[in-house]
Amino acid sequence: MKIAIGNDHTACELKKSVIAFLEEKGHGVINMGPDTPDPDDDYPAVGEAVGRTVVAKEADLGVLICGTGVGISLAANKVKGVRAAVCSDPATARLTRLHNDANIIAFGARIVGRELALDIVRAFVDTEFSGEERHIRRIAQLTEIENRG
Ligand code: RB5
After folding, report:
1. What is the Cα–Cα distance from 32 to 36, expressed in whole angstroms?
2. Active centre residues (catalytic)
3. What is the DSSP track for 78-119?
């Protein structure tokens, strides 16, 4: 799988651990965030860039990390076709793939530690969308809301 990853200045170290973990699992990684912390590295542009990469199908899934995961997920969710979910536990990460067909996961470097972050990423990338009719219907309703602007 090809995975786009992005972060802000709060998450450079955690991002590196996630990249190493994904590469060890055999995934290709597109690194779209800074590798060294600069407080001027704001999250919106990175969230948007990862969102556009996923929607363009240049990556299968995305991973976003900022202080809380919230700001960077809000930026990604402004891109049409993105379903970015903030998850602080592996069960939510699994269910958001299964039920919401989330295409980006976000979490906070100030909220989750390294091991928990890797468990969250593992659950997200190892789970496929269920494809169940009721979930397809609800996701289509989300798209309708998005299309109404
Ligand atoms: C940066 O201080 C912080 O606001 C950012 O990383 C993120 O948590 C925003 O949602």
Report:
1. 12
2. 66, 99
3. TSTT--EEE-SSHHHHHHHHHTT--SEEEEETTTS-HHHHHH
- Lookup: tokens for 93: 């990460």
State CA 38 to chain mean position distance.
21
Atom 6 (ligand 1) nearest CA? 67
The amino acid sitting at 111 is: I
Which residue is closest in CA terms to ligand 1's atom 9?
Answer: 71
Q: Is the pTM of this model over 0.85?
A: yes
Neighbour-count burial for 2-17, b at 16+ CB within 10 Å, e otherwise: ebbbbbbbbbbebbee
Cα(85) to centroid(ligand 1), Å: 16
SS3 of residue 3 by DSSP: strand
pLDDT in tens, 38-51: 999 999 999 999 99
